[in-house]
Amino acid sequence: MTKATTPDEETKLGSIVSHLAELRDRMLRMVIAVGVIFLVLAPFAKDIYALFAKPLTDSLPDGVNMLIIGVAAPLLVPYKLTLMIAFLVALPYVFYQAWQFVAPGLYKHEKRLVLPLLTSSVGLFYLGVAFAYLVLLPMMFIVLPIFTPADTTYSPDISSYFDFVMMMFIAFGFSFQMPIATILLISTGFTTAEKLAGKRPYVIVGAFVIGMILTPPDVISQILLAVPMWLLFELGLFMSKFFGQRIKEAGDARDAMQKNARQDADLAVLEAGDGKAESEAEPRSAAATAAGAAAGSSIGEQANALWSDDDESGKNYTDAEEDQAYQTFEDYHPHNDNNK
Q: Which letter does DSSP use for residue 215 in this model?
């Protein structure tokens, strides 16, 4: 037999189902938006790839063209590129749908902080991609053919070029999120602007390490990635001053919520402790009452024996002993003055 669900469980289950349904609808809208843009751009797939390959083709010697090695590469590569371009074009709408799903669960001060950062993040991603396409790739393809060994021709395959350039786009798009990361670190209270400024040498070294990992093994490419990351870090420190009030509001609200949560937790612990103490005190009180009654009964019986004129032992008591017995009996069985 299945266990019956309580009304609270049914409410929670209904809330989860409604959230999942909304998430499905939001994701479906994202997919539809990307699909529509892809269908619009698909007839121009060859032209898009020609523009995409321009940084390389402009640097190739006369008479040298890119190669096609894969069997399906002439079909797949241009349309994969078109799909990626469609996603980049639809990125603001994708973030908008994500924001509409998340925003109802945020407080007002959180919305004031997150919304500008979200829109700035999209713009910085575009800026990183544009920097890679307009600055990095042309300089890179001027330098790389210099290292071509003798008796060889530098003529890259379109598939390898696509994979390489997309990696550069993603790397620069995310590396340009440095101001957002800096502001988030400060706004969440993880660190402060002063502490981050003190870590500047480590940030610069880290930027060059990331440039070494994500770019080809030449100094120019590493510098072209590391220097913008460092400058964007400085931009994040500078922008954190303008976000200072919002960061302070978010921090105060976060501290207040944490304080209320701690107070609620302490109150729950105290209430649980009081309930346990009361439940333990009741049997102890009953036992104490029973013990007192038994003791009083025993002493009263002794007093009755002393006070009685007819003791079973046949012993005769003096007046002082009888007065003492009467007083002892009075202590445990007081008379009502109205009955005297």
A: S
- Does the model's pTM come out above 0.85? no
Mean pLDDT of 300-319: 50
267 within some domain = yes
Angle subtended by helix axes 158-175 and 219-242, to nearest 10 = 30
Q: What is the per-residue DSSP string for 51-69?
A: HHTHHHHTTSPTT---B--
User: Is 62 part of any domain?
Assistant: no
Residue 270 domain-assigned? yes
* pLDDT confidence bin for 310, thresholds 50/70/90: very low
What b/e readout covers 245-255, taking b as 16+ CB neighbours within 10 angstroms? Answer: ebbebbeeebe
CA proximity to 300, closest of 320, 276, 327, 322: 327
The first and second tokens of residue 37, run together, are 């843009």
Domain total for the chain? 1
Q: Is residue 276 part of a domain?
A: yes
Domain range enclosing 335: 259-339
What 144-149 contacts at long range (C-beta under 8 Å, 24+ apart), as own/partner pairs, is 144/216, 144/218, 145/59, 145/60, 147/218
Cα–Cα separations (whole angstroms), residue 329 to 72, 95, 297, 315, 332: 113, 89, 10, 19, 5
Q: Return the exposure string of 153-162: e unless at least 16 CB atoms fall within 10 Å of the residue's CB, then b.
A: ebebebbebb
At 157, is the secondary structure helix, strand, or coil? strand
Contact between 171 and 137 under an 8 Å Cβ cutoff? The reply is: no
Among candidate residues 267, 255, 284, the one with its CA nearest the CA of residue 188: 255
Show the tokens assigned to 305: 């024996």
Q: b/e per residue, 121-144, with b = 16+ CB within 10 A?
A: bbebbeebbebbbeebbeebbeeb
